[in-house]
Design a protein that fits this description.
Radius of gyration: 18 Å
CATH superfamily: dinb family like domain
Biased composition (Basic and acidic residues): 1-10
Distance between the termini: 22 Å
Structural class: mainly alpha
Number of domains: 1
CATH topology: Four Helix Bundle (Hemerythrin (Met), subunit A)
CATH class: Mainly Alpha
Number of helices: 6
Region (Disordered): 1-37
InterPro entries: DinB/YfiT-like, MST-like
Protein name: DUF664 domain-containing protein
Pfam families: MST (PF04978)
Largest sheet: 2 strands, antiparallel
Shape: flat
């Protein structure tokens, strides 16, 4: 295993295409059949795929590797991304709420990244936080199936929020690609 200043050798688990994360037959993001019908189902499918990609990019790493800031001078780490997206899920619920906002999960601004440390209890908590916050945001939005409905104090459209969620996960999955490759050399989509 390479240290932070060493460059790990690139590798892939895939044998069919060397630049893929996993062989197409083994990739859980691949499904048989046609894509979903309808705008809402399509948006949910893309969101699900990006959420799965983030988890896949974190699989097989220990707490130190997940917390490693492998692309200096950035403060990003895979663990930080998990914490950040849990925080985002909570923030998105605040956007559509008329009530008092939920408090930040990790305290001060950027604590999601800055305080992501190599501790297995923190890793476990971050993944639990992410799952809980995703479930809560999904449930809140499920009560509003009309994509044109405007919610919250800023009257954000449900469609806009769903697209923003996809964009945020997609952008951070790109970061996860680079972070993971710098941690242990694993490449792939």
């Amino acid at each position: 295993m390479a240290g932070m200043s060493e460059r790990p050798e690139r590798w892939s688990q895939a044998s069919v295409y060397p630049d893929m994360w996993a062989d197409p037959d083994d990739d859980p993001r691949n499904s048989d059949g046609v894509s979903p019908d309808g705008e809402l189902a399509t948006l949910a499918d893309f969101l699900s795929g990006y959420r799965m990609t983030l988890r896949m990019k974190c699989e097989g790493l220990d707490a130190e590797q997940l917390a490693r800031r492998s692309v200096p001078p950035s403060t990003m780490s895979l663990l930080g991304l998990v914490r950040h997206l849990a925080e985002d899920e909570r923030d998105w619920r605040n956007w559509i709420s008329e009530g008092e906002p939920l408090p930040k999960l990790y305290g001060r601004r950027d604590a999601d990244f800055d305080e992501a440390v190599a501790d297995q209890a923190q890793v476990d908590a971050a993944f639990a936080d992410l799952e809980r916050e995703q479930t809560a945001t999904d449930a809140a939005l499920a009560r509003h199936p009309d994509l044109g409905e405007r919610l919250g104090k800023d009257a954000i459209a449900v469609r806009e929020l769903l697209v923003h969620r996809i964009e945020e996960y997609a952008r951070h999955c790109g970061h996860a690609d680079l972070l993971r490759e710098c941690v242990d050399g694993r490449v792939g989509q």
